[in-house]
Amino acid sequence: MGLSNQERTRKILYGVRGMVEKAEKLEKQASDAYPDENKILRLAKFCNSLWPALMGKTSNGAHWLIGSSSSNLVLSENEDLWSIAVCSSLPEVNEGDVIPSKDELYLSKLEWHPLKERLNIESLLGDNAISTVCSIYKISEDIVYALRRYDDDYLSSKKEFSDLIASIQGTCFSILYNNKEFTICYVVNQICNILYADKYRFDEDKYEDVVDEWLHTSNMHHDIIRVIGRKGENLEWIVKQHLILLASEGIDLKRNRVLVALRMSGRKYHYSHQHKSLFEILKKDKDMQDESFLAEVSKELEACKKAKIEDEESSQKEYKEENKASCLYGWNALPKKIKEVETKSKKKSNAKKK
């Protein structure tokens, strides 16, 4: 599908606007992004240079004769910022009938989509600098699509802007490279895509299978994502779960979706009524009544209960130890607190050296 220069310009302007907004957020998050603070600030600086690189060479030598874009008639085919801003909210008109804009139609039909809103990589990362970097990289790809769609005069006229986008993408790569937190969230996202079959359903008559029904009716996404940052489940363990799903098909895939979801939920899925509900749903499908499979399910459920008990015991022990120490020496004297203070002071001193 071809793109006109006007369409390319609109996509680029939309992307630049979004990237500059992300840069403002990134500047506030940089102080908590050790050891990538300097790279984060460099990325924000690059993003803030986008408007000058894109519009800095734009001139209007005929302003005295024909006026400026803000004083002239706005036309839908115009490529200037003023016209595009006006047209961005205009409804469509067809033979006298006013039709809501595409954005309004889209938003009116949009349903809350946990896979998109809760289970995408940015959401899994949380509200932090790495999450914002991911968003910036995705926007840059949209800009590149429009900018370099064709090797023509349009691209040649924006060489400085194109080079700046390349610097932004390179800096994003430098930040994300060898970042385990980013990789873990990507793999968890890919696992969720398999578990939910890339779609979150609202209509109970359209569930793909009993596993689909269980995942949706039990709101399992809340428990599944808790695997991120949990003790004992490192990147290698999460990758193993992904490989189990990738190597499965048919009935085996259906069963492994249950087992992997339970393992990832861990201690969060410990209530007896949850376990009872799972078995009731599995009864609806003869493929899920295999004795060896049900035995594996029971084993995983027992592991969930055991993990919950061990977690509570560990928390109680830790609380007692902290309480004893704080009674005599005060809260800030605790080893954990001392380490936190030392870490913060090291970050500040390293930042000053740089």
At a glance:
This protein has 354 residues and is mainly α. It contains 19 helices and 2 strands.
The first-level CATH class name of the largest domain: Mainly Alpha
Strand coverage percent:
under 5%
Number of helical segments with 4 or more residues:
19
CATH architectural group of the largest domain: Up-down Bundle
Average of pLDDT: 82
Strand order of the largest sheet: 1-2
Proportion of residues in helical segments: 55-70%
> Any idea what the shape is?
globular
Question: Rg to the nearest angstrom?
Answer: 27 Å
The count of domains is 2
Q: Write down how many β-strands occur, each being a DSSP E stretch of 2 or more residues.
A: 2
Largest sheet: 2 strands, antiparallel
> Are there runs of 5+ residues with pLDDT below 50, and where?
60-67, 104-110
Structural class: mainly alpha
CATH topology of the largest domain: Hypothetical Protein Ta1238, Chain: A
Distance, first to last CA: 48 Å
Helix-strand sequence: HHHHHEEHHHHHHHHHHHHHH
